[in-house]
Design brief:
The protein has about 200 residues and is mainly β. It is built from one helix and 14 strands. The protein has one domain.
């Protein structure tokens, strides 16, 4: 157990304040790194610099809609502009064990040649401790903010209604992922797969 700012942490995530502004890695609390060269969770391979060495500024793939329509070329771009770098230390308890990982806030764009998507949005790229040649990618756009011709699959009025772009970015310059539409209220929600790219 480690006591931090009056909180007791039993190797699980907790929150608190540290006098120097930086929590110790063994606190198992997500925290912000100050620079691209700062190390996450005492793992020298977990730095923002390492993540940016893997990501490419531009990827191309083929997008295939799940519910009809022809495949089209997809262009995906990723740019880092001094976004937040978050360290998620490894965590172990009786019910859960996770490896350390690092997230970078980036700017992304996804566009298809048929105009179905023409989106620009905030996204996150993630580097897990046990993977050194690819990054997870995730970002979403509210249905009301879409610029492409994509037509929502889920009818009705919702508190939250968006399209999520999630997948992998490989050091080899390839990308793959899925497009998922999601809608929700305080009482529940629905999701539906719209398509995938590879």
């Amino acid at each position: 157990m480690r006591a931090i700012a009056g909180l007791a942490c039993f190797a699980v995530a907790c929150t608190g304040h540290w006098t120097d502004g930086v929590p110790p890695p063994d606190a198992a609390v997500s925290y912000t790194l100050r620079s691209l060269t700062d190390v996450c969770d005492d793992n020298p391979t977990l730095t923002g610099q390492r993540a940016l060495a893997i990501v490419m500024p531009r990827y191309t793939a083929t997008y295939t809609p799940l519910h009809g329509g022809a495949p089209s070329m997809l262009v995906q771009t990723v740019a880092y502009d001094a976004g937040t770098i978050t360290c998620h230390p490894a965590m172990t308890n009786i019910e859960l064990s996770t490896d350390a990982s690092l997230d970078l806030a980036v700017h992304a764009a996804v566009a298809t040649s048929d105009g179905l998507f023409d989106e620009s949005f905030a996204a996150t790229i993630s580097l897990p401790a046990d993977v050194q040649d690819s990054l997870a990618f995730d970002g979403s756009v509210a249905i009301a903010d879409l610029h492409g011709t994509y037509a929502p699959m889920i009818p009705g009025s919702w508190q939250s209604h968006d399209v999520d772009f999630g997948g992998m970015l490989a050091a080899a310059g390839t990308t793959s992922g899925t497009v998922v539409e999601g809608a929700s209220t305080a009482d529940g929600g629905e999701t539906g797969n719209a398509g995938s790219w590879l």
